Amino acid sequence: MTVILIIVAVVVVLGLIVGFGFIAPRNRRGSLEPPSKHRSLVDDRVVPPEEAERASLVEAEVAADLEIRIPVEDVVVDAVAERPRFRDRLGKARAALSGAMGSIASRSKIDAETWDELEEALILADVGVGSTQDLLDHLRARVKADGLSNGEELLGALKAEMADRLSGFDRELKLSSESGPSVWLFVGVNGVGKTTTIGKVGVREVREGQTVLMAAGDTFRAAAAEQLGMWAERAGAEFVRGNEGGDPSAVIFDGVEAASARNIDLVLADTAGRLHNNVNLMEELSKVRRVADKGAGNVTEVLLVIDATTGQNGLVQAKQFTDAVELTGVVLTKLDGSAKGGIVVAIHDQLGIPVKLVGLGEGAEDLVSFDAQEFVEALFA
To answer: Which CDD domains match (predicted)?
Structure first.
Protein backbone atom coordinates (compact mmCIF):
# COMPACT_ATOMS: atom_id res chain seq x y z
CA MET A 1 0.00 0.00 0.00
CA THR A 2 2.83 2.36 0.87
CA VAL A 3 4.51 1.65 -2.42
CA ILE A 4 1.32 2.49 -4.36
CA LEU A 5 0.98 5.84 -2.56
CA ILE A 6 4.59 6.71 -3.33
CA ILE A 7 4.08 5.92 -7.03
CA VAL A 8 0.92 8.07 -7.17
CA ALA A 9 2.73 10.96 -5.48
CA VAL A 10 5.61 10.76 -7.95
CA VAL A 11 3.21 10.78 -10.92
CA VAL A 12 1.40 13.86 -9.58
CA VAL A 13 4.66 15.74 -9.01
CA LEU A 14 5.91 14.87 -12.48
CA GLY A 15 2.60 16.03 -13.97
CA LEU A 16 2.88 19.38 -12.22
CA ILE A 17 6.46 19.84 -13.41
CA VAL A 18 5.58 19.03 -17.02
CA GLY A 19 2.53 21.31 -16.93
CA PHE A 20 4.52 24.21 -15.54
CA GLY A 21 7.21 23.72 -18.14
CA PHE A 22 4.59 23.90 -20.91
CA ILE A 23 2.86 27.04 -19.62
CA ALA A 24 5.82 29.11 -18.42
CA PRO A 25 7.48 29.67 -21.83
CA ARG A 26 4.18 30.89 -23.23
CA ASN A 27 3.81 33.32 -20.33
CA ARG A 28 7.38 34.51 -20.76
CA ARG A 29 6.87 35.08 -24.47
CA GLY A 30 3.72 37.02 -23.75
CA SER A 31 5.42 39.18 -21.16
CA LEU A 32 8.13 40.19 -23.67
CA GLU A 33 5.62 41.64 -26.15
CA PRO A 34 5.49 45.45 -25.86
CA PRO A 35 2.12 47.10 -25.34
CA SER A 36 0.51 48.30 -28.56
CA LYS A 37 0.70 52.01 -29.29
CA HIS A 38 -0.93 54.17 -31.97
CA ARG A 39 1.77 55.97 -33.92
CA SER A 40 1.76 58.88 -36.32
CA LEU A 41 1.98 58.19 -40.05
CA VAL A 42 4.56 60.93 -40.39
CA ASP A 43 6.81 60.49 -37.35
CA ASP A 44 7.31 58.18 -34.35
CA ARG A 45 5.46 60.18 -31.73
CA VAL A 46 2.67 58.44 -29.83
CA VAL A 47 -0.69 59.89 -30.80
CA PRO A 48 -4.21 59.52 -29.44
CA PRO A 49 -6.38 56.71 -30.86
CA GLU A 50 -8.75 59.16 -32.58
CA GLU A 51 -5.86 60.78 -34.47
CA ALA A 52 -4.52 57.36 -35.44
CA GLU A 53 -7.96 56.43 -36.77
CA ARG A 54 -8.08 59.63 -38.83
CA ALA A 55 -4.59 58.93 -40.17
CA SER A 56 -5.66 55.42 -41.13
CA LEU A 57 -8.51 56.86 -43.19
CA VAL A 58 -6.08 59.21 -44.93
CA GLU A 59 -3.73 56.30 -45.63
CA ALA A 60 -6.57 54.37 -47.23
CA GLU A 61 -7.52 57.38 -49.37
CA VAL A 62 -3.98 57.94 -50.60
CA ALA A 63 -3.43 54.24 -51.24
CA ALA A 64 -6.56 54.26 -53.40
CA ASP A 65 -5.29 57.32 -55.28
CA LEU A 66 -2.01 55.55 -56.00
CA GLU A 67 -3.77 52.24 -56.71
CA ILE A 68 -1.29 50.60 -54.34
CA ARG A 69 -2.12 47.30 -52.73
CA ILE A 70 1.34 46.54 -51.31
CA PRO A 71 3.26 47.82 -48.26
CA VAL A 72 4.87 51.27 -48.45
CA GLU A 73 8.40 49.88 -48.27
CA ASP A 74 7.74 47.78 -51.37
CA VAL A 75 6.49 50.64 -53.54
CA VAL A 76 8.65 51.25 -56.62
CA VAL A 77 8.10 54.80 -57.85
CA ASP A 78 10.09 54.19 -61.03
CA ALA A 79 7.55 51.68 -62.30
CA VAL A 80 5.71 53.90 -64.78
CA ALA A 81 2.43 52.78 -66.28
CA GLU A 82 1.48 53.59 -69.86
CA ARG A 83 0.24 57.15 -70.36
CA PRO A 84 -3.56 57.20 -70.68
CA ARG A 85 -5.06 58.45 -73.94
CA PHE A 86 -7.61 61.27 -73.99
CA ARG A 87 -9.72 59.22 -76.41
CA ASP A 88 -10.03 56.40 -73.88
CA ARG A 89 -10.81 58.60 -70.86
CA LEU A 90 -13.19 61.30 -72.15
CA GLY A 91 -16.15 59.04 -72.81
CA LYS A 92 -18.58 61.08 -70.69
CA ALA A 93 -17.69 64.39 -72.32
CA ARG A 94 -17.91 62.82 -75.78
CA ALA A 95 -21.24 61.19 -74.97
CA ALA A 96 -22.68 64.57 -73.97
CA LEU A 97 -21.93 65.87 -77.45
CA SER A 98 -22.39 62.77 -79.59
CA GLY A 99 -26.16 62.96 -80.04
CA ALA A 100 -26.20 66.55 -81.22
CA MET A 101 -23.04 66.19 -83.29
CA GLY A 102 -24.38 63.10 -85.01
CA SER A 103 -27.57 64.94 -85.89
CA ILE A 104 -25.66 67.96 -87.19
CA ALA A 105 -23.26 65.84 -89.25
CA SER A 106 -26.21 64.24 -91.06
CA ARG A 107 -27.66 67.57 -92.21
CA SER A 108 -27.42 68.30 -95.90
CA LYS A 109 -27.52 72.05 -95.35
CA ILE A 110 -26.60 74.58 -92.66
CA ASP A 111 -29.73 76.43 -91.63
CA ALA A 112 -31.05 78.26 -88.55
CA GLU A 113 -32.06 74.99 -86.91
CA THR A 114 -28.51 73.68 -87.35
CA TRP A 115 -27.06 76.71 -85.58
CA ASP A 116 -29.61 76.43 -82.75
CA GLU A 117 -28.77 72.77 -82.22
CA LEU A 118 -25.04 73.48 -82.21
CA GLU A 119 -25.45 76.32 -79.73
CA GLU A 120 -27.45 74.12 -77.36
CA ALA A 121 -24.87 71.33 -77.55
CA LEU A 122 -21.96 73.67 -76.73
CA ILE A 123 -23.76 75.22 -73.77
CA LEU A 124 -24.68 71.79 -72.41
CA ALA A 125 -21.00 70.83 -72.71
CA ASP A 126 -20.26 73.84 -70.46
CA VAL A 127 -18.41 75.94 -72.98
CA GLY A 128 -20.36 78.82 -71.45
CA VAL A 129 -22.73 81.33 -73.00
CA GLY A 130 -20.11 83.98 -73.76
CA SER A 131 -17.58 81.60 -75.28
CA THR A 132 -20.30 79.79 -77.20
CA GLN A 133 -21.55 82.99 -78.83
CA ASP A 134 -18.03 84.05 -79.75
CA LEU A 135 -17.28 80.60 -81.13
CA LEU A 136 -20.45 80.60 -83.26
CA ASP A 137 -19.70 84.09 -84.60
CA HIS A 138 -16.30 82.91 -85.82
CA LEU A 139 -17.85 79.76 -87.27
CA ARG A 140 -20.44 81.75 -89.23
CA ALA A 141 -17.66 83.87 -90.71
CA ARG A 142 -15.68 80.75 -91.62
CA VAL A 143 -18.72 79.06 -93.19
CA LYS A 144 -19.30 82.11 -95.36
CA ALA A 145 -15.65 82.62 -96.27
CA ASP A 146 -14.99 78.97 -97.11
CA GLY A 147 -18.37 78.26 -98.72
CA LEU A 148 -19.25 75.41 -96.33
CA SER A 149 -22.63 73.90 -97.10
CA ASN A 150 -23.43 70.86 -94.92
CA GLY A 151 -23.31 69.67 -91.36
CA GLU A 152 -20.22 67.52 -91.73
CA GLU A 153 -18.21 70.46 -93.07
CA LEU A 154 -19.53 72.61 -90.21
CA LEU A 155 -18.30 70.13 -87.60
CA GLY A 156 -14.91 70.04 -89.29
CA ALA A 157 -14.76 73.83 -89.01
CA LEU A 158 -15.83 73.62 -85.35
CA LYS A 159 -13.01 71.22 -84.51
CA ALA A 160 -10.49 73.45 -86.27
CA GLU A 161 -11.79 76.55 -84.48
CA MET A 162 -11.63 74.89 -81.05
CA ALA A 163 -8.11 73.61 -81.71
CA ASP A 164 -7.03 77.12 -82.77
CA ARG A 165 -8.41 78.64 -79.58
CA LEU A 166 -6.57 76.14 -77.41
CA SER A 167 -3.25 76.47 -79.24
CA GLY A 168 -0.59 79.12 -78.81
CA PHE A 169 -0.28 78.70 -75.03
CA ASP A 170 2.91 77.80 -73.22
CA ARG A 171 1.98 74.74 -71.16
CA GLU A 172 5.46 73.89 -69.89
CA LEU A 173 5.89 73.78 -66.10
CA LYS A 174 8.69 76.23 -65.44
CA LEU A 175 11.81 75.67 -63.38
CA SER A 176 13.97 78.60 -62.32
CA SER A 177 17.32 79.21 -63.99
CA GLU A 178 18.48 81.19 -60.96
CA SER A 179 20.11 79.83 -57.81
CA GLY A 180 17.81 78.40 -55.18
CA PRO A 181 14.85 76.06 -55.47
CA SER A 182 11.94 76.60 -57.82
CA VAL A 183 8.60 76.97 -56.04
CA TRP A 184 5.27 75.79 -57.41
CA LEU A 185 2.26 77.03 -55.42
CA PHE A 186 -1.00 75.09 -55.66
CA VAL A 187 -4.23 76.94 -54.89
CA GLY A 188 -7.90 75.99 -55.04
CA VAL A 189 -10.96 75.40 -52.90
CA ASN A 190 -11.23 72.40 -50.60
CA GLY A 191 -12.48 69.21 -52.22
CA VAL A 192 -11.07 69.68 -55.73
CA GLY A 193 -8.18 67.25 -55.20
CA LYS A 194 -5.45 69.83 -54.56
CA THR A 195 -3.36 67.83 -52.09
CA THR A 196 -3.67 64.65 -54.15
CA THR A 197 -2.62 66.61 -57.24
CA ILE A 198 0.51 67.85 -55.46
CA GLY A 199 1.36 64.28 -54.54
CA LYS A 200 0.97 63.11 -58.13
CA VAL A 201 3.05 66.01 -59.45
CA GLY A 202 5.71 65.08 -56.91
CA VAL A 203 5.79 61.49 -58.16
CA ARG A 204 6.03 62.75 -61.73
CA GLU A 205 8.88 65.20 -61.03
CA VAL A 206 10.90 62.68 -59.02
CA ARG A 207 10.60 60.25 -61.92
CA GLU A 208 11.95 62.95 -64.20
CA GLY A 209 15.03 63.39 -62.02
CA GLN A 210 14.12 66.39 -59.86
CA THR A 211 14.72 66.47 -56.12
CA VAL A 212 11.48 67.54 -54.47
CA LEU A 213 10.25 68.93 -51.14
CA MET A 214 6.55 69.13 -50.30
CA ALA A 215 5.40 71.88 -47.91
CA ALA A 216 2.08 71.36 -46.10
CA GLY A 217 0.80 74.93 -46.08
CA ASP A 218 -2.87 73.97 -45.74
CA THR A 219 -2.80 74.10 -41.95
CA PHE A 220 -6.56 74.54 -41.56
CA ARG A 221 -7.86 71.31 -43.12
CA ALA A 222 -7.85 68.28 -40.86
CA ALA A 223 -5.40 65.57 -41.99
CA ALA A 224 -4.08 67.63 -44.92
CA ALA A 225 -0.50 67.43 -43.62
CA GLU A 226 -0.74 63.69 -42.97
CA GLN A 227 -2.07 63.12 -46.49
CA LEU A 228 0.69 65.16 -48.11
CA GLY A 229 3.31 63.52 -45.89
CA MET A 230 2.28 60.10 -47.14
CA TRP A 231 2.56 61.25 -50.74
CA ALA A 232 6.05 62.62 -50.00
CA GLU A 233 7.06 59.26 -48.56
CA ARG A 234 5.81 57.39 -51.59
CA ALA A 235 7.40 59.80 -54.05
CA GLY A 236 10.75 59.84 -52.27
CA ALA A 237 10.44 63.58 -51.54
CA GLU A 238 11.34 65.65 -48.48
CA PHE A 239 8.51 67.01 -46.35
CA VAL A 240 7.91 70.07 -44.15
CA ARG A 241 4.83 70.72 -42.03
CA GLY A 242 3.71 73.14 -39.33
CA ASN A 243 1.28 73.11 -36.46
CA GLU A 244 -2.40 72.63 -37.22
CA GLY A 245 -4.02 76.05 -37.57
CA GLY A 246 -0.61 77.73 -37.87
CA ASP A 247 0.51 80.43 -40.29
CA PRO A 248 0.59 78.95 -43.84
CA SER A 249 3.11 81.54 -45.00
CA ALA A 250 5.55 80.47 -42.30
CA VAL A 251 5.30 76.83 -43.37
CA ILE A 252 5.97 77.71 -47.01
CA PHE A 253 8.88 79.95 -46.03
CA ASP A 254 10.39 77.20 -43.87
CA GLY A 255 9.95 74.73 -46.70
CA VAL A 256 11.77 76.96 -49.17
CA GLU A 257 14.61 77.60 -46.72
CA ALA A 258 14.93 73.88 -45.98
CA ALA A 259 15.01 73.10 -49.70
CA SER A 260 17.70 75.70 -50.23
CA ALA A 261 19.82 74.33 -47.39
CA ARG A 262 19.53 70.78 -48.77
CA ASN A 263 20.10 71.80 -52.42
CA ILE A 264 16.65 70.55 -53.44
CA ASP A 265 15.45 71.54 -56.91
CA LEU A 266 11.72 72.01 -56.42
CA VAL A 267 9.27 72.94 -53.66
CA LEU A 268 5.63 71.91 -54.12
CA ALA A 269 3.56 74.05 -51.75
CA ASP A 270 0.04 73.27 -50.61
CA THR A 271 -2.11 76.24 -49.56
CA ALA A 272 -5.38 76.77 -47.73
CA GLY A 273 -8.54 76.31 -49.77
CA ARG A 274 -11.36 77.02 -47.40
CA LEU A 275 -14.04 79.57 -48.36
CA HIS A 276 -12.84 80.71 -51.78
CA ASN A 277 -15.20 83.71 -51.63
CA ASN A 278 -13.81 84.93 -48.32
CA VAL A 279 -11.75 88.12 -48.67
CA ASN A 280 -9.50 87.17 -45.77
CA LEU A 281 -8.52 83.92 -47.41
CA MET A 282 -7.64 85.67 -50.65
CA GLU A 283 -5.51 88.14 -48.74
CA GLU A 284 -3.82 85.23 -47.03
CA LEU A 285 -3.03 83.60 -50.37
CA SER A 286 -1.57 86.88 -51.61
CA LYS A 287 0.64 86.91 -48.52
CA VAL A 288 1.76 83.33 -49.16
CA ARG A 289 2.70 84.30 -52.71
CA ARG A 290 4.77 87.27 -51.51
CA VAL A 291 6.49 85.36 -48.72
CA ALA A 292 7.37 82.44 -51.01
CA ASP A 293 9.22 84.85 -53.29
CA LYS A 294 11.10 86.67 -50.51
CA GLY A 295 13.33 83.85 -49.37
CA ALA A 296 15.87 81.70 -51.17
CA GLY A 297 13.39 80.31 -53.69
CA ASN A 298 11.81 81.51 -56.90
CA VAL A 299 8.08 81.12 -57.56
CA THR A 300 7.82 79.94 -61.15
CA GLU A 301 4.33 78.44 -61.14
CA VAL A 302 1.04 79.28 -59.40
CA LEU A 303 -1.36 76.51 -60.37
CA LEU A 304 -5.10 76.59 -59.74
CA VAL A 305 -6.62 73.16 -59.20
CA ILE A 306 -10.23 72.88 -60.43
CA ASP A 307 -12.60 69.92 -60.32
CA ALA A 308 -13.79 69.57 -63.92
CA THR A 309 -17.15 68.22 -62.81
CA THR A 310 -18.08 71.63 -61.34
CA GLY A 311 -18.18 73.19 -64.81
CA GLN A 312 -18.80 76.95 -64.86
CA ASN A 313 -18.34 77.14 -61.08
CA GLY A 314 -14.72 76.33 -61.77
CA LEU A 315 -14.52 79.36 -64.03
CA VAL A 316 -15.83 81.58 -61.22
CA GLN A 317 -13.16 80.19 -58.91
CA ALA A 318 -10.48 80.83 -61.52
CA LYS A 319 -11.47 84.48 -61.81
CA GLN A 320 -11.28 85.00 -58.06
CA PHE A 321 -7.96 83.24 -57.60
CA THR A 322 -6.44 85.05 -60.58
CA ASP A 323 -7.07 88.39 -58.88
CA ALA A 324 -5.38 87.19 -55.69
CA VAL A 325 -2.28 85.31 -56.84
CA GLU A 326 -1.62 85.83 -60.57
CA LEU A 327 -2.16 82.31 -61.84
CA THR A 328 0.23 80.80 -64.37
CA GLY A 329 -1.83 77.74 -65.17
CA VAL A 330 -4.72 75.44 -64.35
CA VAL A 331 -4.87 71.79 -63.35
CA LEU A 332 -8.21 70.15 -64.18
CA THR A 333 -8.91 67.11 -62.03
CA LYS A 334 -11.53 64.43 -62.73
CA LEU A 335 -11.80 65.33 -66.40
CA ASP A 336 -12.41 61.66 -67.14
CA GLY A 337 -15.54 61.71 -64.97
CA SER A 338 -17.04 64.91 -66.34
CA ALA A 339 -19.49 65.57 -69.14
CA LYS A 340 -18.47 69.25 -68.98
CA GLY A 341 -15.31 69.18 -71.06
CA GLY A 342 -16.18 72.54 -72.59
CA ILE A 343 -14.87 74.24 -69.46
CA VAL A 344 -11.40 73.90 -71.01
CA VAL A 345 -12.41 76.23 -73.84
CA ALA A 346 -14.05 78.70 -71.45
CA ILE A 347 -10.92 78.93 -69.27
CA HIS A 348 -8.69 79.70 -72.23
CA ASP A 349 -11.17 82.10 -73.83
CA GLN A 350 -12.22 84.16 -70.83
CA LEU A 351 -9.09 84.09 -68.68
CA GLY A 352 -6.28 83.53 -71.13
CA ILE A 353 -4.73 81.02 -68.71
CA PRO A 354 -3.51 77.68 -70.08
CA VAL A 355 -4.67 74.35 -68.76
CA LYS A 356 -1.33 72.66 -68.09
CA LEU A 357 -2.28 69.35 -66.49
CA VAL A 358 -5.43 67.23 -66.50
CA GLY A 359 -6.50 64.27 -64.40
CA LEU A 360 -7.68 61.32 -66.49
CA GLY A 361 -7.98 58.79 -63.68
CA GLU A 362 -7.10 57.95 -60.09
CA GLY A 363 -3.50 56.78 -60.46
CA ALA A 364 -0.40 58.96 -60.28
CA GLU A 365 0.31 58.22 -63.94
CA ASP A 366 -3.16 59.53 -64.88
CA LEU A 367 -2.17 63.16 -64.27
CA VAL A 368 -0.90 64.16 -67.70
CA SER A 369 0.11 67.24 -69.67
CA PHE A 370 -2.77 68.79 -71.57
CA ASP A 371 -2.67 68.24 -75.33
CA ALA A 372 -5.07 70.55 -77.18
CA GLN A 373 -5.23 68.59 -80.44
CA GLU A 374 -5.70 65.25 -78.69
CA PHE A 375 -8.38 66.77 -76.45
CA VAL A 376 -10.43 68.12 -79.38
CA GLU A 377 -10.12 64.86 -81.31
CA ALA A 378 -11.26 62.92 -78.22
CA LEU A 379 -14.41 65.05 -77.92
CA PHE A 380 -15.54 64.37 -81.48
CA ALA A 381 -14.02 60.98 -82.32
So the answer is: FtsY (cd17874)
